[in-house]
Automatic annotation (TrEMBL):
<feature type="compositionally biased region" description="Low complexity">
    <location>
        <begin position="219"/>
        <end position="229"/>
    </location>
</feature>
<feature type="region of interest" description="Disordered">
    <location>
        <begin position="219"/>
        <end position="247"/>
    </location>
</feature>
<protein>
    <recommendedName>
        <fullName>Prohibitin</fullName>
    </recommendedName>
</protein>
Length: 247
């Protein structure tokens, strides 16, 4: 802060006198005594000491020019003091504005950093949630595919085993029938009849399952199950009633 001049206002006690060359001596003495008493009283009020009488000079030459000079000096002193006060106020306002700007900038920086950290935390949480969801979906899809593949492999294995078992049973039955003296035509007819019977049973089961699904979707009441289709007996099956059957 720049230094400003300090104006000190001094109290100037002017002892006025109305002494003139045409006044009488008694009037002059009375005025001088009264002025001296006023000076002594003023000094006592200020807490000072009464000066010696010889230090008090009574001026009888105070006129309008002296009053104007004193007034101008007082006005100049007041103007200088006012300008100094205005400069101090302006400097204080400037410093306050600078401090407010600095505080505002710090507040903006803190708010920006806080917003950045909050955004980073939110993005991290969202990214982790998305990764967990993607991993869970991928894991569930992989498990479903694995389960479907296992079920398909088991079904295919069961079908293959059933077919191999059927062929093995037919071969064993044919061999036994041939050992018992049956002709190959009779054995072939018997195998064909058994195959037809198995196919008829499978078709009946599939038909019942399809009808059950249709009835569950359209009809509230469950109808009676259809009787399985029984193949008509042939000469080959009648003639082979005494043979071994593995079904």
């Amino acid at each position: 802060m720049s230094a400003h001049p300090v104006v000190k206002l001094k109290k100037v006690a002017v002892v006025k006198s109305t002494h003139s060359p045409n006044s009488t001596a008694n009037a002059s003495d009375a005025i001088n005594a009264r002025s001296l008493a006023q000076v002594v009283a003023a000094v006592n009020r200020e807490g000072g000491t009464v000066p010696d009488v010889k230090d008090v000079h009574l001026s009888s030459a105070v006129g309008l020019d002296a009053r104007l000079a004193d007034t101008e000096q007082l006005a100049a002193s007041l103007g200088a003091a006012t300008r100094g006060v205005h400069a101090l106020i302006a400097r204080a306002i400037e410093l306050t504005e600078q401090r407010c700007r600095a505080e505002g900038q710090r507040a903006v920086d803190v708010a920006t950093a806080s917003a950045v950290r909050s955004t980073e935390r939110r993005m991290t949480v969202e990214r982790e949630a998305a990764v967990r969801q993607a991993v869970a979906e991928t894991w569930a899809e992989a498990k479903a595919k694995e389960q479907a593949a296992v079920e398909r492999a088991v079904h295919e294995t069961e079908l293959r085993c059933a077919e191999e078992q059927r062929i093995a049973v037919q071969l064993a039955t044919s061999a036994i029938n041939l050992e018992w003296g049956k002709s190959q035509e009779e054995v072939a007819a018997e195998n064909a009849a058994k195959s037809f019977e198995q196919a008829a049973r499978a078709a009946g089961a599939a038909l019942m399952a399809a009808q059950g699904l249709q009835w569950r979707g359209h009809a509230p009441a469950k109808p009676a199950a259809a009787a399985p289709v029984e193949p008509k007996p042939t000469d080959a099956t009648q003639g082979s009633s005494g043979g071994l059957e593995f079904f």
